[in-house]
Fold:
Amino acid sequence: MVIRFRKPDRFRVDFPFLLQMIKDSWMSRRNTIVVPGGKMGLAMELILTPILRRIMEDRKSLMG
Structure:
């Protein structure tokens, strides 16, 4: 599975962490990571959890 980030700086994607956590993954470009298909769930969890956490924190600070 190929995961491409349009603006990795915007979401502060930690590529070294992802490569360490997802076995047999590798970078094909500076903003693209290739992950074995069987690791798709883990990859999505590792990528989306911090992004969603930041979104929720930003929402809380704007609302209150």
